[in-house]
Write a structure and sequence with these properties.
CATH superfamily of the largest domain: ATP-grasp fold, B domain
CATH class of the largest domain: Alpha Beta
CATH topology of the largest domain: D-amino Acid Aminotransferase, Chain A, domain 1
Largest sheet: 8 strands, antiparallel
Number of domains: 5
Number of strands: 39
Bound molecules: adenosine-5'-diphosphate
Length: about 675
């Protein structure tokens, strides 16, 4: 076994590899770019070497710098992780030339699978079933189109050099073909410097099922069953699970054998994944082979009880596979959800920012969190916006799914938009619970996942109002404890009036619209809904708040909800779905009778425009600041005639909820 290895990667996968190396008593060397000077993988490793500037092309992709770092530190082997240099045959060859072990397959195997079309030719020869299609060398548009016409539509155009869903286009009819081909070629050329295409029959409702294979240097090979990765956005995975729901033993065995056939056809060594499309009728087709460890390998680890990085290290060190095929068994069910800094409401575009608050759910035998970031870290423009992988396990799918929902509802992240609520909403839909999976799942069920019906919103509103009221009481009580007179009536939040109802009312921002809800507090501390739909009026509500957990009683129906509050935005997770809302703070107008008054931001958001200049006189109700939060604009108006003395922020600035925005002087402060 090795004494010291270098990990040519960053983030969660570098941390993941370091953990196993440490378990095996192997010392580790990290590499880092200027953006990662203080990254977790750097602090976790025994040594770390700077390899260049922040952009990956100037650091993590520079094979010479990585090799130099390995030589300098005396690392005997390099683990490439996934992405970056993991499927780069030249890098693997350069390692070999320098007597450094590349922890991955031999150069020939990487080369064989590097081109999707060449890989298909090899697989076809080896008798592995392929998606019907054309993957030949003649790239003339007429020939490509002829094949598409012969095959029948829809077809899928794929970049031969492709990856990450780039250079891929669905074509639904012959008329669309030429335009789609042009677009796919352009995208492929700009992403991979190569515009060769293959044409495949587009299967409309397949599942993405992949087989984990492992081979050692002695020629033994096993498969560690399958993963279902059908839940994808933009053809990229977001939730994976193992085993694939409803998989028949005979299909599993046939796919496993086909995957091993694929691996043997290229004299494979180490960890590899053979990806298939599985059709409704259980026919399966080879798609591609990834010659590295996959992002989603933890679900396989959870159901087999094996550490795949340990297997990789053993195999690379020349040892035999730790287990034979009949020693491997599936135990229970596992899910992985990829937590991304991205905006599901904006076509899942990646977002950047500082992780101002980060608290993952607690890890246990059922919950595992693979991450490479800590609170305070930056999700930058340079690398993949994945924050973590949340992995759960239990005895069966239903129980594992309940664990997934629970763990997602406990994930607290502030500082940027993430896909946590999206994942929760997806994981709690009925079709997902029933495992009605195919690669079009998100599109097909987008209504269920994205658009809360008014009924669903109404169901959560009393909980939101109850939470806000109880939270306000808790905060006031905590403050009161710090004062000289903890029993002072001024610390009460029950809205007591000598005669008249005690009402707590809230303006909430939900799905771009403002919704008001009010709770009338009784003398006994329970509440009645006093402003909403006529059908809900009079609903009796009570409850307690323990940390982030709300225990509510609504007309005798007890429910539990988890609430995550960050940056003035609240996510309320109930059993059925997550509801996100903002609280619009009431406008108290000019609070400073001395003349100068500050306006505070009603919630965290961006300054969109300042319609008046600093120093100008304004009329009462004239717009002074326009902010945007949760994709909705708020206009902040002058409470009286006066002068805008100074703005504290400029358009484009991100401001925290409650931050003072402007210095305003009323014209007649006595009025
Ligand atoms: P990439 O390497 O760019 O990620 P893949 O070949 O792995 O591309 O395909 C990514 C996804 O695209 C698959 O998981 C599947 O959802 C979809 N896909 C690929 N080929 C087909 C096909 N022939 N029919 C339907 N969907 C496909």
């Amino acid at each position: 076994m090795f004494d010291k290895i270098l990990i040519a990667n960053r983030g969660e996968i570098a941390c993941r590899v370091i953990r196993t190396a440490r378990k095996l008593g192997i010392r580790t060397v990290a590499v880092y770019s200027d953006a990662d000077t203080n990254a977790l993988h750097v602090t976790m490793a025994d040594e770390a070497v700077r390899i260049g500037a922040a952009p990956s092309k100037e650091s993590y992709l520079l094979s010479d710098n990585v090799l130099e770092a390995a030589k300098k530190t005396g690392a005997q082997a390099v683990h490439p992780g996934y992405g970056f240099l993991s499927e780069n045959a030249e890098f693997s060859a350069a390692c070999k030339a320098n007597d450094i072990v590349f922890i991955g397959p031999p150069v020939g195997a990487i080369e064989a699978m590097g081109s999707k079309s060449a890989a298909k030719t090899i697989m076809e020869k080896a008798g592995v079933p392929l998606v019907p299609g054309y993957h030949g060398d003649d790239q003339s548009p007429v020939i490509l189109k002829q094949h598409a016409d012969d095959m029948g539509y829809p077809v899928l155009l794929k970049a031969t050099a492709g990856g990450g869903g780039k250079g891929m286009r669905q074509v639904w009819s012959s008329d669309e073909f030429d335009e789609a081909l042009e677009a796919a070629k352009r995208e492929s050329l700009s992403s991979f410097g190569d515009n060769r295409m293959l044409v495949e029959k587009y299967l409309t409702q397949p599942r993405h099922v992949e087989i984990q294979v492992f081979c050692d240097q002695a020629g033994n090979g096993v498969y560690l069953f399958e993963r279902d990765c059908s839940i994808q956005r933009r053809h990229q995975k977001v939730i994976e699970e193992a085993p694939a729901p409803g998989m028949k033993d005979s299909v599993r065995a046939a796919m496993g054998d086909a995957a091993l056939l694929a691996a043997k056809a290229i004299n494979y060594e180490g960890a590899g994944t053979v990806e298939f499309l599985l059709d409704k009728d259980d026919t399966f087709y080879f798609m591609e082979m990834n010659t590295r460890l996959q992002v989603e390998h933890p679900v396989t680890e959870m159901i087999t009880g094996q550490d795949l990085v340990e297997w990789q290290l053993r195999v690379a060190a020349g040892q035999d596979l730790p287990l034979s095929q009949d020693q491997l068994q599936i135990n229970g069910h596992a899910f992985e959800a990829r937590i991304y800094a991205e905006d599901p409401d904006n076509d899942f575009l990646p977002v950047t920012g500082t992780l101002s608050y980060l608290q993952p759910p607690e890890e246990s035998a059922h919950v595992r969190v693979d991450t490479g970031v800590l609170q305070g870290d930056e999700v930058s423009i340079y690398y993949d916006p994945m924050i973590a992988k949340l992995i759960v396990w239990d005895e069966n799918r239903d129980r594992a799914l309940a664990r997934l929902a629970q763990a997602l509802s406990e994930y607290r992240i502030s500082g940027m938009t993430t896909n946590v609520e999206f994942l929760y909403n997806l994981a709690t839909t009925e079709p997902f619970r029933k495992a009605d999976l195919d690669t079009g799942f998100i599109d097909k069920h987008s209504k269920l996942i994205f658009h809360k019906s008014q009924t669903e919103i109404n169901r959560s509103l009393p909980l939101a109002a109850l939470y806000l009221t109880l939270k306000r009481k808790q905060d006031a009580a905590a403050l009161a404890c710090q004062t000289a007179d903890p029993y002072s009536p001024w610390d009460n939040t029950n809205g007591w009036r000598s005669c008249g109802a005690n009402i707590h009312d809230y303006s909430l921002l939900i799905n771009d619209s403002e919704i008001t809800v009010a709770l009338e507090e009784s003398a006994t501390g329970s509440f009645t809904l006093s402003a909403r739909d006529a059908s809900e009026l009079g609903m009796r509500i009570s409850g307690t708040l323990e940390g982030d957990e709300l225990h509510a009683d609504i007309d005798g129906h007890r429910v539990r909800a988890n609430i995550v509050a960050h940056d003035g935005i609240y996510s309320l997770f109930t059993q059925d779905a997550a509801l996100q809302f903002g609280l619009i703070e009431p406008d108290y107008g000019d609070l400073d009778d001395g003349g100068a008054a500050g306006f505070t931001a009603p919630m965290t958001g961006t300054i969109v425009a300042l319609p008046v200049e600093a120093g100008s006189s304004v009329k009462k109700d004239q717009a002074i600041v326009i902010m945007e939060a949760m994709k909705m604009e708020h206009t902040i108006r002058a409470p009286a005639d006066g002068t805008v003395v100074e703005f504290y922020f400029q358009p484009g600035d991100l401001v925290d909820g409650g931050a003072e925005l402007v210095n305003f002087e009323a014209a007649d402060s006595d009025s």
